[in-house]
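Subgroup meeting minutes
Present: P.N., E.W., G.H.
Scribe: E.W.

1. P.N. recapped why we're keeping a running log of single-chain structure predictions: easier to compare across weeks, and new members can see raw inputs and outputs side by side.
2. G.H. added today's entry (351 aa).
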Amino acid sequence: MPASANGSRRLAAALLLAALLFSGCGNSYYRGPVTDHFDGAKFFNPWDPMPGRFIEFLKWRLSADRAPWPDSVPVTPALPPQRVDGDELRVTSVGHATLLLQTSGLNILTDPIWSERASPFGFAGPSRVAQPGVRFEDLPPIDLVLVSHNHYDHLDLPTLKRLHEAFNPLVLTPLGNDAIIREAVPGMRLQALDWRQGMDIAPGVRVSLEPMQHWSARGLFDRMEALWGAFVIDAPGGPVYFLADAGYAKALSEEVLTKYGSPRLSLIPVGAYEPRWFMAYNHMNPEEAVQTFLDLGGRHAVGTQYEVFAMADEGYDDPRRDLGAALQRHGVDPSRFLLPKPGEWFTLPAR
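Output recorded in log:
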C-alpha cells in the first residue's frame, strides 16, 4: 500500500482517537448492586478478566497495517416478506452483525446499523464497502431490536432513531445501554437486561440475555460502564443464539447448550480478528468460530462481522478463506455454516 495511504489512515485514526477522548466524558450509564460481574461501578468477565491494555490499543490504532479492502462491492438488496408465520425461520443478511430474523409472526433485527460509518463522526472511522442488504424503506414492520453492546458498529444511534420513528419497536439491551439510547432517542421502548434475565415477547417466544466475553466503551472514559451480552431467542421452532461480538469462551457455549439445547441457528462472529496479540480476548477468529459452532452442537450457523466494515487488520477476503479452511479441517459441511453476502437470505425448518 502506498506510504501516503498509510499516512492518511494513521492521521484519521489519530483524529478519531482525539475525538473519542471527549465522546464518553461524564457518562454514567448504570449503578446497582454488586454482583459476580459488576463491582458497583464497572462490569467485568468473572471467568477470565480482560487485561488492561489501553496502551496496546493506542499502539495498534496508530500503527495498524490493514490488509487490502475494496472501496465498494455490489449489493443486490432483498425484499423481505411482511411476516413469516409458524415455525419456519427466514434469515436475511443486512450486513456486519445486522440480520433480519422472521419467525412466529415476529420481525427481529440484531445490532442494526444502516449508517455509512461505524463511528460517532462523519469524517473518520470505518466506512461501508457494502450497502445494506435490505433498503431501510423495504423493511417489514420491525417488532423487536436486539442491541448486544455499545460499540459503534453494534449500537448505532442514527439507525435506532430511524427505527423508532418508522416502527416504534421494543429494544432489548444489556444494563446501561438503555441510558445511552434513551438520551439520544427519547420515547424509545426499552428494556434493559442483566445476564441470565429474559422477557416474554409473544406467546411461546422468550428472549434472554446470556454472558459473552467482550467489553464496552463509547469513548476513552466510560470503559466497562455498560454491560455486553449475547441473546437467545427461544421460539417454538427452536432457539436462535446471537453471539454478537465475542472472544472464544467454551464454558459459555456449554452453559447455553445446557440451558437451551443445541441452537437451531447460531449467529457467530468470524471477522475483526487480526492482529491476534490484541484481538484474541475480544474477537474469535474463524478457527474459534468453528470450534464454537461445534461446542454448541453443530446444527446450523451463520457468520457475522465480515465484508462490510474494515474493523481490524485482516483483509476483505480473509474471513471467508479462513473459515472455509477451518470447516475443512474439522470435517464440517460448509452448508451448515453460511457466510451470506448482504441481501442473501435462507430459511430453516423447525429444529
